[in-house]
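To whoever picks this up:

The parser on our side crashed when reading a file containing two proteins. I've narrowed it down to the boundary between the first structure block and the second sequence. Both blocks are reproduced below exactly, byte for byte. First block:
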Amino acid sequence: MRTLIEDAWLLGASLLIGIGLLASSSVVIVLGTLVFLSSAAGRIWAKISLDEVYYTRDMSLTRMFVGEETVLTLALANRKLLPVPWIEVREQVPEGLLLIDEKIFVTGASRTRTLRRNTALGRRDRVEWRVTVRAVTRGYYRIGPTTLFSGDIFGFFENEMVADIPAAAIIVYPHTYLLPELGFDSVRPFGELPGGNRIYEDPSRIVGVRDYQSSDPMKRIDWNATARVQRLQSRLYEPSRAQSIVIAFNVGTLKRSWEGSDPIVLERGVSVAASIARWAYDTDLEVGLIANGAFPGQGRPIHLGVGRHPDRLNRLLEALAGISSFTISSLARELEGSLTAGSTVIVVAAVMPDDLVATLHRLRRDGHHIHVVKISSQIWESELGSIPVSDIANLMESLEAGLAEELGVPGETILTKGNKVSASEVAAPL
């Protein structure tokens, strides 16, 4: 359509010149010539308007938690001598990212909106815009592609170009809570956790006394015991252990998988699993993750072995950030043969199928400590017996409402996954 309109100018000019020649009217010939020259100049100007125009995009943060903000810097530079009378930038932005104090436009693409910027560029000129972006939904996102529009000074002819820069990849980690906010004890949220190797003595736990040794510090001397036996006695402390925590996340949210998924409960489970992972890492415990959902763009369940490497938490949170509602296996099957001896298994689940109950009982008989975190109000028919269960569904509802109010968005906004990309399109962890 635009090409037809542009061609109409040349056709109209040619007709005017032809009519002028037939009528021997110099005025019409001059008018036609002016229209022809103007349209030709306009087309040439529009054609070269985007030559040597460079667009850049920069993010102050590419890894964020829900609720955090980053600054998106957009810049245009005209490096030619000819000015650009007008130029429009159209930047594609996924729904999971909220642009603060910005007007956005709905596009035909699913879960994508358009940010527009208009300006003019002089010779060798440069302009820059800063946009505050708030993360409102966990996920893997990309900003882009970007389309540039320009044309002649009269606006009769246009040119467009897709900016030759890669999309900006962003990972938004799930929102995490402190475990006391979820109703757990701040010191031992999951009770006494067995297992592990001795790494240091805990001075808060005295298990006995022994004869004083020259290497013992004075603060270790038990003066009451010394008085009783009439020789120096030193306290014996219980050894602390490097415990292994495995977070087992059941991605299924409804009793029958073919019924689909409850997005609210799914996001709740992701957030709870991330909160436990962050607590375990901060407590200096070895932590791993097992889930019957897949990594983005991959067809295998999530298995991250236990460890305390500095990037362990990043990997756990990135896996949870990209997890979808699609289950590719049962959690019971994924737990079979996946645990080290003596590890603690914290199960985050909305539903409790019979096969999972049987697996948890078997793991407990094998010496594993099991704790179940229930995240839905559904009634579980299966009998867990003496396995401890923490039901936090009602508490999570109030926390989710508070989070939505804090972010300044409708509650359902933070419960809907945004525009996803494959893991291969996202940069390596920082």
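<<boundary where parser fails>>
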Amino acid sequence: MIRSSFIGTGVAMVTPFNNDGSIDYPSIQPLVDFVISGGVDYLVVLGTTAETATLSATEKRLVMDAFMQANNGRVPLVLGIGGNNTQALVNELQETDFFGFSAILSVSPYYNRPSQEGIYRHFCELSKASPLPIILYNIPQRTGSNMEPETVFRIANDCPNVIGIKEAKGDIHQAKELIAKRPSGFLVISGDDSLALSMVLEGGDGVISVIGGGFPSEFSELISLGLSSNSDLATQNQQKLSKIIQLIYEEGNPAGIKSVLSHRGLCTDQVRLPLVAASQSLSDRIKDCCLDFSNFVRI
């Protein structure tokens, strides 16, 4: 069943750039190999971490193709398609070739600040147009509005191909409500690295992670421990990861995770304006933290 493909650890992939800001397509293959070899369950392409808002339509298509070819069918791929123009998204869903992709991640409409009824109707229209299952994405600090649990449940009940939500409000109480009251089979996936283990231990289904792009084996193991209810060992590993998780968000995403990937020799730390790369001070602290995983507790 397609829903089971998204239980565990998904990674929100970066778009690697050259120092001049152009896309570094050759680095996509080693990035994909690195995270898959770390045991992650699926990859998310063209999400927030990918700086999708700064990519042209042509670049998006080329990035999709590059990730699809690099993955070569090894794990499911999720494609980010979201925005605040419902009709434009409907057109995009109807016109895009989704070959090689298994699901869509779609963020709640941003900037417009729609009502709960507007959010509901938006996703109903996307659901009717989408040839692939949809995972909702709630991240109020970016969108300016919260997708309330009752709205999520309305969408889940009325739109059969909406299979789950990436919940990133940063509120464990809302996450617990989603988990407790969700329709049968509806996935509740953490969008917050620091809360992922807590959500899994409450009955959540995993995470779409940023830190998993830099530490795929460590973070996917943490989530596996949580899903198997090994809370003691999982908590130990969470404590070991907590510092680097805090650091990668200190100056925003994806500046932090790209600093990690730069120190690991996988791509540059280049981002596109209006984002800027991690400061030298932060980069130095991230580098030191990257060297401190030799005693990581394993299953």
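After patching the parser it read the second block fine. The longest strand covers residues 162-167. The two ends are 27 Å apart (CA to CA).
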